[in-house]
Amino acid sequence: MAGEEVPGDGAGGRFQGNRLGSVFAELGGGASLVGVRSGAGRAIGQFQVGTVGNRGIDGKLPETMTGDLFPIANLLPRDGEAMNHGVVFAPEEAEGIFARLHREIPWRPDIIRMFGKIISTSREVAWMGDAGLDYTYSGETKSPLPWTDLVLALKDEVERETGEPFNSCLLNLYHDGSEGMSWHRDNESSIVADSMIACLSFGAARPFHFKHLKTRERISTVLEPGSLLTMNGEIQRHWQHALPKSKRVSAPRISLTFRKMKTPDGHLASERMPLG
Ligand SMILES: O=C(O)CCC(=O)C(=O)O
Fold first, then answer.
1. In ligand 1, which atom is closest to the CA atom of 208?
2. Which residue, among 85, 81, 128, has the nearest Cα to 107 in the 3D structure?
3. Residue in 166, 241, 245 to alter for ligand 1 test, most ligand atoms within 8 A of Cβ
4. How many domains are contained in the chain?
5. Is 34 or 251 the better-scoring residue by pLDDT?
6. Which atom of ligand 1 is nearest to the CA of 170?
7. Rounded to whole angstroms, how far apart are CA atoms 173 and 185?
8. In which domain, by residue range, is 45 found?
9. Is residue 191 lining ligand 1, measured as CB closer than 6 Å?
10. Residue 264 located in a structural domain
11. What is the percent of the chain with per-residue pLDDT over 90, rounded to a whole number?
């Protein structure tokens, strides 16, 4: 995640940049474009187009224009936000992160209560976060593991990408497409209401679905390895989401869903019913 020079072609001109720093492209005719780069070399943030160093005939520097270089659209038509930020870690880096997470995390089956029975899922999980941030869902309470260096570094990267702070993370390991997560909302009262949930994906690409509770509209996206998806605003009040099982997927996938939990004096309750 350190800065590295990335040469490339700009729109008809020279283009160079630093992964975490600025991007500068000479577009010809003295025009320039300045942006901010992200992990996989995708430019995000603001750009400026103007003529650097050249003054107009009146001797004044010309106006610059600013805007989003590659705006990320909301996937949902109403009632909340879901943004697929695309790939934010380059493939080689994403593979290395997957291998480390697979090796370093103390994965355990998820224990959930369904229809009065206690079920141990084949999908494995880890709950990590600041001390004291217990998470109760599906009738079971989990106390957080301390942050590992890697997950903390990923949290920093997600916070930089989104501009939002997170205090906890639910990690999921799906061994193959026979494991998924059925329709649910992340709307437990232990989560700060309407706060952003940011999901990083590594390993196999998997489809991800949203379903509106009233209109029954369905929206789908694909979570590619090294990609970031954010859910924000009223989404958890109006939309369910699911990671469907798939016979076509034979490789494992790891997701990290960074969350903002209420601090321990907040009220805890459970309403979620994930399936392994
Ligand atoms: O693994 C995923 O991407 C989905 C996880 C999820 O839906 C959740 O943790 O609420």
1. 3
2. 128
3. 241
4. 2
5. 251
6. 9
7. 19
8. 8-68
9. no
10. no
11. 62
State the CATH number of the domain containing residue 240: 2.60.120.590
Q: Does some domain include residue 188?
A: yes
Neighbouring-strand partners of residue 44: 36
Per-residue model confidence (pLDDT) at position 58: 65
Name the more confident of 235 and 9: 235
In this prediction the pTM is 0.76
199 lines ligand 1 (CB under 6 A): yes
The full length of the chain comes to: 276
181 within ligand 1 shell (Cβ under 6 A): yes
Strand pairing category for 117-129 and 140-142: unpaired
Q: Which tokens sit at 265?
A: 């004096």
Mean pLDDT estimate for the chain: 81
